[in-house]
Amino acid sequence: MIRDARVLRAGFVPREVEHRDAEVNHLSSVLEPITNGEPADTAIVTGPSGTGKTCISQFVTERLREEVLDVEATYVNCWRNYTRYRTLYQILDDFGETIDIHRQSTPHDELIDRLQQYDGPRTVIILDEVDQLEDPGVIYDLHSLPQFAVICIANKEEDLFSRVDDRLVSRLRSSEHVRMDKYHDEQLHDILAARVKGGLDQDVITTNQLDRIADAAAGDARLAIGILRTAASKADRESRERITDDILLNAAEDARAQIKQKNLDSLIPHQRVVYDVVREHGPLGPSEIYDHYKRKVDDPRTKRTIRTYLSKMTQYNVLEAEGTSRDREYSLVDSTAPSVTQ
Ligand SMILES: Nc1ncnc2c1ncn2[C@@H]1O[C@H](COP(=O)(O)OP(=O)(O)OP(=O)(O)O)[C@@H](O)[C@H]1O
What SMART domains does the database record attribute to this sequence (predicted)? Predict the structure, then answer.
């Protein structure tokens, strides 16, 4: 059943990407100057979850590294490394420049100095989930260092811009912006078909079944691949020769639950408090959520930050938002979302 399990993993970067030629070309052209040893513009890549932001950014930087000897790439997930310090540390660590840095006592300026003095190859720095940074000033730090090209990945431009100061907003507004929309069903079908070809035995799934997975995934390639993975591994465990419709029926729900659990596990402590407030008292509007949240923590973040957390958690299907932007209420997601139809 499964020939190459890597191909079905969420973080897999394929040798060819489907239906993103314009975005690949756009991003490549933004980074192009770095191949001639010149500074490149910062690129901002935005779009809903599962639209290929990370995959396309990694694909483009990999291709660049194949073409040019003196270019490297480094990747930081800013959700996991959500402080300015952690992000800078992570980059330096990838460069092998952290041996004598003491996380507790080395000042932040020292990390910037190190990056400034870094004389390795020109490097593309991918800052994924950049809207999760507590202090987005790190974008400014990197923006001003010409030996690095920066790709900032976020779900929504507004969430990123609402939290940075005017100086950075004006810089970022003049940056190149690559937008990714949700995939159409036919596009998801092609993404799935490529994974099937690379990872599964022949004839284990029909074209019609792939169409139904694409339909249930509603434009989200992460979910589509997750459903395929869940179904294939169940069929494999049960030693079936094919993925049956019965297996597919539960696969969407299982894949969604797995992704949701992973997103829940990724919440940083303050987001977790916000989530718990909604779990205990929801549905609630942002102001009520903020009041509850403030009572629960010693060092509350600003109301604006909490709004971006709510937006993020909604994008990642941990919370559900209903109502207009003026009158919005948040609750936990309803787990009875669409499944793969028979
Ligand atoms: N155009 C594409 N061609 C092939 N595979 C793709 C394409 N777009 C996305 N994928 C695959 O779909 C999955 C999700 O993509 P990716 O992680 O890049 O989405 P994202 O927009 O960064 O999502 P999130 O905001 O949730 O991090 C990955 O396994 C990726 O390899």
Answer: AAA
Structure tokens at 59: 């694909």
Q: What is the dihedral of CA 272, 277, 279, 285, to 10 degrees?
A: -120
Report the alpha-carbon distance of residue 295 to residue 293 in Å, rounded: 5
162 vs 169: CA distance, rounded Å: 9
- Is there an atom of ligand 1 within 6 Å of 260 CB? no
168 CB contacts (<8 Å, ≥6 apart)?
136, 137, 139, 140, 143
Please list, in sequence order, all residues whose beta carbon lies within 8 angstroms of the beta carbon of residue 3, skipping any fewer than 6 positions away: 198, 199, 200, 201
Q: How does strand 148-154 pair with strand 176-179?
A: unpaired
pLDDT tens per residue across span 273-299: 999 999 999 899 999 999 999 999 999
Identify the sign of the CA torsion 245, 246, 248, 252.
Answer: positive
Q: Is 126 helix (H, G, I), strand (E, B) or coil?
A: strand
Whole-complex ipTM: 0.99
Residue 203 to residue 209: CA distance in whole angstroms: 11
Question: Which residues have a Cβ under 8 Å from the Cβ of 97 and sit 6 or more positions away?
Answer: 114, 118
Nearest CA to ligand 1 atom 6: 52
